[in-house]
Amino acid sequence: MKQAAVPLVSCPTAQGEQPCSGALTPDAGDGLPLRLSDDGEDILEGALRCGSCRAAYPVISGVAVLHPDPGGYLRRYYGSVLRDVRRHGDLSPTARTWLARRYGREAGAEDYGADFRFSQQFEPPWAMARAMVREPEALYGEFAGWLRSVRGPYEVLADWAAELPRERHLALDAGCGGGGLVSRIASGFQAALGVDLSFLAVLLARRAVLHLPEPERSYVFTPRRGKEVERPLTVTRAASAEFVVGDCCALPFARGLFDVVCSSNVIDIAGVERPLDEAARLVRPGGVLLLSDPFYFREGEAPQGEPVEVLRAEVRRRGFRIEAEQDGVPWAWATYDRHWRLYFNYCLAARRS
Asked: What backbone phi and psi angles, to 5 degrees, belong to 166?
């Protein structure tokens, strides 16, 4: 966690129906010593402690776990966190012992459930087609021409983020994955923050977009079943960005903090009501809400009625005026050379009254 970004986050612990929102400061986390990067700018280990309720939020390998129940989160995903820090992070022996002592005995066996790929976050579909197939026109036919020109939801939301805000101080992507949208919009804002429930996504987003603790320069993808290929990854460092672990239904920020709040492919997973409540809480008066979703709802999460009409009504009910819409925005990504997944997203931009 970059020290410069600490003043932007706040305590997400529930106080009745509202978050505590107390200011957080770096601290030793109940026995986990504070460890900084060599330049002193990045908190590698320790905690962020709330000055109001005294809750402590661990920082592990530079990733601040700002979940409203950080202990429950680390118990639930203990095995996954250790696996992913081992592969991609920087964990001291002291921190490893601390994690095992506090959370290892009652550890759950769950994974984050994130379907995360660098190709999906950072590479256009045509680049992936050419990486997988020597002559994509011969295999894909007319589909190849479509892949050349397709612009996905990230491009639509990034264009709106560049055009619609009257001020460009702070932006948030709630459900940021590996940082694909944040990397596209960060240069236009003083600071751009990303939040995701997946520790792995945040760990890799910091490597890819912040180049911390070191740049992620390649990734492995599967052009054909049983064949893996290492592909170079070149993402320009976004000095104004930061990423934290958090829950899109209980975000670790103060009311009205952001000029722009984005959320892509979240409401079909977490439901419509609570993510929209949180996004509305964080957008300042006159600020902009940017949404994109394919409405591929989990069982029990689908709203009653046609999803586009429901989303429009819910956005307006929270005090927003819709300024731009685009439906049928293609979201295409390759699973291997002869299989592509294709969704058609609805994208919306609305301004807080």
From this structure: -80, -30
Measured CA distances, 271 to 14, 134, 313 (Å): 20, 41, 15
Q: pLDDT per residue over 133-177, tens digit each?
A: 999 999 999 999 999 999 999 999 999 999 999 999 999 999 999
Q: In Å, what is the CA distance from 88 to each residue of 203, 220, 344? A: 7, 13, 33
Three-class DSSP category at 312: helix
**Its pTM surpasses 0.90:** yes
Contact 38, 219 (CB under 8 A): no
* SS3 state at 198: coil
Give the relative orientation of helices 125-132 and 142-149 as an angle to the nearest 10 degrees.
Answer: 130
- Give the separation between CA 210 and CA 212, rounded to whole angstroms: 5
- Sketch out the chain's domains with CATH numbers: 3-104 (no CATH), 118-352 (3.40.50.150)
